[in-house]
Design goal:
This protein is of the alpha+beta class and 224 residues long. 39% of the residues lie in helices and 17% in strands. It is built from six helices and nine strands, in the order ββββααββαβαβαβα. The strands form two sheets. The chain has a seven-stranded mixed sheet with strand order 3-4-2-1-7-8-9. A two-stranded antiparallel sheet has the order 5-6. The mean pLDDT is 92.
């Protein structure tokens, strides 16, 4: 399974047989080699984190430090700034819950990044319903350059995260697909250098996951 931290977020995988989500939240794309590419996308990923960064006029190292701080101090953020696709909430909006005067800039930024990451975890569950059973996640996209966010992904997903040292992962994948389609065989690719992040369970994350699930339910119940 791969997760891309781009303007929108995507989680996708490869299966040799049909990959169908009974709830219809994961798309069942066909692969040029005859397999299937189940994919689930969230509309709000670095679009949300960049919104928070620009709101506080922070640079990326400052955002990384806020994420590495490890806590939102009870604050939760539902990151539906552009509506949402997974789950299907086209009219959804962003929601902060648990705001207190004691919380500062770093807590708010952490809550935004955490909320986006929990949204991706929800997308991973959609892929699991298609039969995908990941043992690790390959992390790509612009947001993956952050060590702190990569570690948070491992912690929230409960899976090891591997970040390959490749800049244009999407272009590389498209080229490999094309090579396979033309030559009729799996391309032989040399292993790429990568960095690995092991999940570190935290009780605070379990509580945060519970809050996010409740917020998602409320957003669904309030649909017009």
């Amino acid at each position: 399974m791969a997760v891309s931290l781009g303007t929108s977020g995507t989680a996708f995988a490869y299966r040799s047989g049909p990959a169908l989500d009974p709830l219809g939240e994961a798309a069942a794309f066909c692969d040029s080699t005859g397999g299937w590419l189940p994919l689930a996308a969230t509309l709000n990923c670095t679009s949300a984190t960049e919104w928070a960064r620009e709101l506080f006029a922070m640079d990326h190292p400052e955002v990384d430090a806020a994420v590495a701080s490890g806590g939102a101090a009870g604050l939760a953020f539902l990151p539906y700034l552009s509506g949402e696709r997974t789950p299907n909430r086209p009219d959804g909006t962003g929601v902060f819950v648990g705001l207190r005067a004691s919380q500062g800039r770093d807590a708010i930024v952490y809550a935004v990044v955490e909320g986006v990451t929990f949204g991706l975890a929800y997308a991973l569950d959609a892929l699991r319903r298609t039969g995908v059973a990941p043992t690790e996640v390959t992390l790509i996209g612009g947001g993956s350059a952050s060590d702190a966010w990569a570690q948070l992904c491992a912690d929230v997903f409960g899976l090891p995260v591997v970040r390959p040292a490749i800049v244009e992962a999407a272009a590389s994948g498209a080229a490999r697909q094309a090579q396979w389609a033309v030559e009729g065989d799996r391309p032989r690719v040399a292993p790429a250098a990568s960095q690995r992040f092991e999940p570190q369970p935290r009780a605070a994350l379990h509580e945060a996951a519970r809050r996010m699930a409740t917020l998602r339910e409320i957003a669904g119940a309030n649909r017009l």
